[in-house]
């Protein structure tokens, strides 16, 4: 009988003129506008100015900040590293998440394993950075110590040297976020009723066929949400890189990503240059990147969701 | 026929071996994560001069002194209080405004509800550091920088998009019959909301936990928006301790600080990990 | 208690396609038990929700107790509703659920308690007052929903398929109990169901709806005996009425190769018709004396009677309410007369009992 609920999305008894709903929404909306949206708009404006902060009056310079950035190696370094996290890191994270999800589906300890893998996501990024630093420390580090202990001295590296440190950053991010995406993918996979797999088994489907004919199509919407979340996460991620790259102080340029550069250029704590206009320009580019990529991912992954 | 069977059993053998390797890999990963945690906890009880010498030795003494140092390094009495106030207050107030908003957005069926939901969700994609400059300036204009109220308000702002997003998922999944039954009995909008609220409790709890954990771990906003020593939160304290390491090399003190900061999280997590994990995934799958 | 009147009530959910309800007129007397019945999507629940105030009619007039309440919000209509899945508040106890409406209306705590206790004992719920809905059985929950409805003595009860979530045995019990309760309270009731047994056993009058249009409003007996059109004829009664394609020409009723005498009450009829015969009005005769030839496909022994499924060489008119083209022609006969499966038999229609409908409009040709 669900005729009314499917056909009419606005039952009159609950339909309000917006004024009543407004009273429910106003507080959240006001704070959201003041704390997030107004500064976002302001950021766009500041990005067209040169400004050294309070006490200085912003001077309108048009696209000068952007022009400067496009010529800056530092900016392109940050930009490329951000993309590296997004794409290379993303591929690794999603590969592991997928394989783990498939493996975990049939493992008895899956809840425990999932809880352990998810754990880094609730640990302060600073603590994670400290742990990651201890692991990879060149002398006395856990990893090199372990490699020596099993006779693989040749495999030891100076993991935190400029040429390797960014890969170490990505490895750390993979370690942290794989657990998060396993959790999300598992939620999607767990929703698939068992009888689909039983039916596929009865038809003699191979594991690969089950993956491509059952699992993937039925988790597609979850996958698309996960992809959007990864885009946001990868571009936003800041605390871990900041703390790991600089061991609690400003990180070395070889680990800068866009958010780190925003912070370093605009507000960096040891040697602030307060280039607020330039920092804002990077921020605007980041916002644009998030916006464009989210739309793109959604467009690519848009496909009829399957109801089941 | 017989060759077919032969081939398929070979394939199955390969498959089983693959699965075995896969499982081994999963368990190594789990073991690795646990080992890191255990190592940190053990190291927090060791002595600075021996902590890196024999990596996996058990602590030979109970260096409670480490925790006393950490207490001072972190200025723990003060930073914990600040964190509890701002995180607790920020979480409670976020829920207080996000729950009615999410309810109205999903269940009041007014024109513009759906674009408004998208507008709130937009905030999830806005990186805090991208807007922190004008945020700092704006807050200092109204004298809310270096001020725990200002930090609490900011915590609300950054938590609201995700909390609203998560809870719209929960409210949407509630049956409309209950609402209609309450309306038939003569309940007004506010009372209908309070009838529906307990039903969304799992979502509220999950959202509050996720918001609280995120804020507890946050340090950027606290770092930028407050600067007096007595306004620091525990996250900033830890970052400063980490930074000071360059000069003090007091590793064990740092590890003790990490353990102190992790303890409430570990307790919370062993107690409510399922709620956190499931709550987080509801937003993605509903 | 009050009367309810609907005048030309029309409901459109969108601008395309036919309306969900069109021009519904219905007069419900004070204390009457009205059942709305029809196939899925016929508009019966929409109609109920319009009376409740959970939907608004696009056009038309709705009066309760003689006054227009179109603009009155649901909560102020003094109407109680029992929902299909009961809609009990899971966090409230049985007592709090039953007393919810009283509390909202500001009834004092003491009075609320005595009223709730009285209603609970009426429904046999006294031992469960402190439990929550989750701790109750389906039947008990159903009673709590009833209790919440009757406790504030509303002007009318609305029930939306209240028994559909119960198992068969409980459904029969609750059916009787609701009927009993309704008579005792003398409560104006509108009851929605898709189950014709409920419609026939419970209603003082039954409203048959199809595609948003009222097909017939009549007492259960009249509905069965004098269906207004082919849809009602086939919707009411189990097994379904057999419907044959035929025509009247030159004073003879032609069905397939058979030429039958037109019963007196249809003498003025002419042209293409549908011939409706309920299974109990179809007899199986010896070869040579019947009206139609048939082949026995299936014989179902039901104890006191036998259902014989037949294939016949006359086109059947399969109605869209039941819509199953494989449905055969069915005769209900005494076990002693059961034919053998696979045999060919002759079929005799009881011409005194058949119904004729206009083949285009589907309307009955019977002049009552």
Distance between the termini of chain B: 48 Å
Bin the strand percentage of chain A. Answer: under 5%
Instruction: Tell me the helix content of chain B.
Output: over 70%
CATH superfamily grouping of the largest domain in chain A: MetI-like
In short:
The complex is a heterotrimer of chains A (308), B (286) and C (368). Chain A has 13 helices and two strands, in the order H-H-E-E-H-H-H-H-H-H-H-H-H-H-H. Chain A is mainly α and 308 residues long.
How is the topology of this model organized?
The complex is a heterotrimer of chains A (308), B (286) and C (368).
Chain A: H1 3-7, H2 19-46, E1 49-50, E2 59-60, H3 64-70, H4 73-105, H5 110-118, H6 125-136, H7 142-149, H8 162-190, H9 194-202, H10 207-236, H11 239-246, H12 258-266, H13 276-301
Antiparallel strand pairs in A: 1-2
Helix pairs in contact in A: 2-13, 3-13, 4-8, 4-10, 5-8, 6-11, 8-10, 8-11, 10-13, 12-13
Chain B: H1 2-43, H2 64-73, H3 76-107, H4 113-122, H5 128-141, H6 148-172, H7 176-184, H8 189-196, H9 201-217, H10 220-225, H11 234-248, H12 251-285
Helix pairs in contact in B: 2-12, 3-4, 3-6, 3-9, 3-11, 4-6, 6-9, 6-12, 7-8, 9-12, 11-12
Chain C: E1 4-11, E2 21-28, E3 33-37, H1 44-52, E4 59-64, E5 67-68, E6 79-82, H2 94-98, H3 100-104, H4 109-122, H5 138-150, E7 156-160, H6 168-185, E8 189-193, H7 196-202, E9 205-210, E10 213-218, H8 220-225, H9 230-235, E11 242-249, E12 252-255, E13 258-261, E14 271-277, E15 282-285, E16 292-301, E17 306-312, E18 329-333, E19 344-349, E20 355-358
Parallel strand pairs in C: 3-8, 3-9, 6-7, 7-8
Antiparallel strand pairs in C: 1-2, 1-4, 4-5, 9-10, 11-12, 11-14, 12-13, 14-20, 15-19, 16-17, 16-19, 17-18
């Amino acid at each position: 009988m669900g005729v009314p609920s499917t056909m009419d999305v606005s039952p009159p008894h609950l339909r309000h003129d917006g004024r009543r709903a407004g009273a429910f929404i106003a507080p959240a909306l006001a704070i959201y506008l003041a704390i997030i949206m107004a500064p976002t708009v302001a950021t766009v404006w500041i990005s067209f100015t040169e400004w050294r902060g309070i006490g200085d009056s912003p001077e309108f310079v048009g696209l000068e900040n952007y022009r400067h950035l496009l010529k800056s190696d530092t900016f392109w370094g940050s930009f490329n590293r951000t993309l590296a996290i997004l794409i290379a890191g993303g591929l690794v994270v999603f590969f592991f998440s997928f394989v783990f999800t498939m493996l975990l589906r049939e493992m008895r300890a899956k809840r425990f394993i999932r809880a352990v893998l998810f754990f880094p996501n609730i640990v302060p990024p600073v603590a994670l950075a400290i742990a990651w630093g201890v692991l990879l420390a060149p002398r006395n580090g856990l990893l090199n110590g372990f490699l020596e202990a099993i006779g693989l001295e040749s495999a030891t590296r100076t993991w935190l040297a400029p040429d390797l440190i960014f890969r170490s950053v990505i490895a750390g991010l993979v370690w942290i976020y794989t657990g998060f995406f396993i959790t999300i993918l598992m939620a999607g996979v767990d929703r698939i009723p068992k009888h689909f797999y039983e039916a596929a088994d009865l038809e003699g489907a191979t594991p690969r066929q089950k993956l491509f004919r059952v699992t993937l199509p039925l988790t597609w919407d979850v996958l698309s949400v996960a992809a959007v979340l990864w885009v946001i996460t990868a571009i936003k991620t800041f605390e871990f890189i900041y703390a790991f790259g600089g061991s609690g102080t400003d990180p070395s340029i070889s680990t800068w990503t866009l958010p780190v550069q925003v912070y370093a250029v605009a507000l960096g704590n040891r040697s602030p240059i307060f280039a607020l206009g330039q920092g804002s320009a990077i921020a605007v580019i980041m916002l644009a990147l998030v916006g464009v990529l989210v739309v793109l991912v959604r467009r690519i992954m848009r496909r009829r969701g399957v109801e089941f | 026929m017989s060759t077919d069977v032969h081939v398929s059993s070979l394939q199955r053998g390969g498959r089983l071996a693959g699965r075995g390797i896969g499982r081994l890999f999963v368990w190594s990963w789990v073991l690795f994560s646990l080992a890191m945690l255990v190592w940190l906890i053990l190291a927090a009880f060791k002595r600075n001069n021996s902590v890196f010498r024999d990596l996996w030795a058990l602590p030979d003494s109970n260096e409670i002194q480490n925790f006393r140092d950490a207490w001072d390094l972190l200025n723990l009495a003060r930073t914990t209080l600040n964190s509890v106030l701002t995180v607790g207050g920020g979480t409670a107030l976020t829920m207080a405004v996000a729950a009615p908003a999410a309810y109205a957005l999903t269940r009041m069926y007014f024109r513009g509800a759906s674009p408004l939901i998208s507008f709130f969700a937009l905030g999830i994609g806005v990186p805090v550091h991208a807007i922190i400059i004008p945020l700092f300036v704006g807050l200092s204009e109204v004298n809310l920088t270096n001020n725990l109220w200002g930090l609490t308000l900011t915590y609300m702002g950054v938590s609201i998009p995700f909390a609203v997003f998560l809870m719209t998922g929960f409210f949407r999944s509630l049956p409309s019959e209950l609402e209609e039954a309450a309306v038939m009995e003569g309940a007004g909008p506010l009372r209908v909301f309070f009838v529906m609220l307990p039903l969304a409790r799992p979502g509220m709890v999950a959202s509050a936990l996720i918001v609280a954990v995120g804020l507890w771990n946050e340090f950027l906003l606290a770092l930028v928006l407050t600067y007096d020593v007595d306004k620091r939160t525990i996250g900033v304290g830890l970052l400063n301790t980490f930074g000071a390491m360059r000069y003090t090399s007091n590793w064990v003190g740092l590890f003790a600080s990490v353990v102190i900061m992790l303890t409430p999280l570990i307790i919370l997590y062993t107690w409510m990990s399922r709620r956190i994990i499931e709550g987080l995934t509801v937003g993605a799958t509903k | 208690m009050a009367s309810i009147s609907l005048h030309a009530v029309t409901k459109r959910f969108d601008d395309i396609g036919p309306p969900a309800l069109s021009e519904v007129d219905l007069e419900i007397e004070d204390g009457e038990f009205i059942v709305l019945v029809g196939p899925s999507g016929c508009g019966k629940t929409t109609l109920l929700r319009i009376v409740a105030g959970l939907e608004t009619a696009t056009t038309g007039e709705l009066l309760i107790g003689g006054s227009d309440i179109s603009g009155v919000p649901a909560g102020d209509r003094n109407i109680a509703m029992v929902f299909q899945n009961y809609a009990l508040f899971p966090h409230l106890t049985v007592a709090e659920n039953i007393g919810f409406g009283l509390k909202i209306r500001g009834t004092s705590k003491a009075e609320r308690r005595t009223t709730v206790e009285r209603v609970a004992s009426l429904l046999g719920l006294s031992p469960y007052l402190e439990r929550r809905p989750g701790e109750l059985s389906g039947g008990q929950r159903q009673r709590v929903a009833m209790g919440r409805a009757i406790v504030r003595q509303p002007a009318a009860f609305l029930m939306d398929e209240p028994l559909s979530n119960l198992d068969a045995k409980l459904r029969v019990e609750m059916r009787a109990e609701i009927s009993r309760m309704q008579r005792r309270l003398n409560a104006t009731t509108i009851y929605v169901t898709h189950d014709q047994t409920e419609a026939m056993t419970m209603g003082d009058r039954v409203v048959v709806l199809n595609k948003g249009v009222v097909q017939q409003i009549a007492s259960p007996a009249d509905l069965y005996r004098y269906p207004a059109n082919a849809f009602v004829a086939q919707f009411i009664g189990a097994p379904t009425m057999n419907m044959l394609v035929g025509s009247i020409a030159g004073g003879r009723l032609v069905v397939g190769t058979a030429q039958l005498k037109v019963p007196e009450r249809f003498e003025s009829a002419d042209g293409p018709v549908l011939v409706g015969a309920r299974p109990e009005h179809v007899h199986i005769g010896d070869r040579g004396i019947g009206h139609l030839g048939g082949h026995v496909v299936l014989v179902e022994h039901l104890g006191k009677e036998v259902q014989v499924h037949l294939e016949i060489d006359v086109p059947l008119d399969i109605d869209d309410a039941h819509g199953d083209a494989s449905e055969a022609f069915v005769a209900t006969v005494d076990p002693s007369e059961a034919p053998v499966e696979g045999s060919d038999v002759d079929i005799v229609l009881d011409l005194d009992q058949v119904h004729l409908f206009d083949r285009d409009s589907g309307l009955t040709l019977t002049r009552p």
